[in-house]
Design a protein that fits this description.
Number of strands: 16
Oligomer: single chain
CATH architecture of the largest domain: Alpha-Beta Complex
Mean pLDDT: 96
Bound molecules: zinc ion
Shape: globular
CATH superfamily of the largest domain: Medium-chain alcohol dehydrogenases, catalytic domain
CATH topology of the largest domain: Quinone Oxidoreductase, Chain A, domain 1
Distance between the termini: 8 Å
Helix content: 25-40%
Strand content: 25-35%
Number of helices: 12
CATH class of the largest domain: Alpha Beta
Number of domains: 2
Amino acid sequence: MIALVKHAKGEGHMSLSDRPIPVCGEDEVLIKVAYGGICGTDIHILHDQFAYYPPVILGHEFSGEVVEVGSAVTGYRVGDRVVGEPHNKACGKCYLCRNGHIQNCMDKRSIGWGIDGCFTDYLVMPEKLLHRIPDGLSLEEAAMAEPAAIVAHQLLERARVTPGDSVVVMGMGPIGLLAAQMAKVAGAGKVILCGTDADVEYRLRVADELACYDRFINVQKEDATAVIMEETGIGADLVVEASGAGSAIRTAIGVLKKWGRLCAIGMTGAPTVEVPWNQAMMKVLDVQFNMSSSYNGWDMALKLMASGKVKTAPMIGIRPLREWEQAFADLEAGKAMKLLLKPEAL
Ligand SMILES: [Zn+2]
Ligand SMILES: [Zn+2]
């Protein structure tokens, strides 16, 4: 099978290679990949900015169909449509695993960087990490279950949007627009989206199609702090930071009301970011750092997507696997929101 492989450490070193079809163990299933979503993580791996263990097949966001089940598998059958949590190799013994946070286990080796992933024809996954794709949800849309599960876990399960909340979303990538939609679903009063000049042409149109915001602020053209204070009166209840920009993080602290909540999902490029610490202290802010997704997050995300309350179709573009290089470039240039690679029978 043809697979997109990162061959060695360093910038680049990525190409399509022929790989054997993986063999599934007794508690695993073999999945025929329908679509594999390109994530920011994959772009970081291309540029050597994220941990990975080469040679490895990239891709951790997939949808597909079960084509073989191991002898100990009880909950899935050939033909089932599935997605899966990329929490492979979590140890099950550490304090994180035993507290239910397998997604943050230090032994975790996710598909796509720790072990072979989904940018290919076939993928092996343990039964215990699978979720069935609900009827009515297409394989294309289901391929966005992973980012949707992250947002559902962080925003709905942890930061807990409450009805009437004024919510500011910094960043207009898939995470930002999923967060804006889920905030609306959870009953947010006003959702304010913050973006830049680069977002106006394409991403803002997608946001319009999703009808997921009340006010858009181009932070390069308007004074975001002044507009948010005017729109909210006493400041925002909740800010979702999904841009990773230092200036956005500082603005977030500036526009939150006292006892407001900051839900941080965006990774910054730099190892340190200057923040107005005392201001955050004086405001008694609740700050939550977030990494990865929970079982409940997946469950909520799939239900919200299947019901149509959270839409992903307007964000998705589909490219053949052999055009991976152009797809990565288009994402980096902001010409696409979420691109799914479709493996082709060769
Ligand atoms: Zn991802
Ligand atoms: Zn563990």
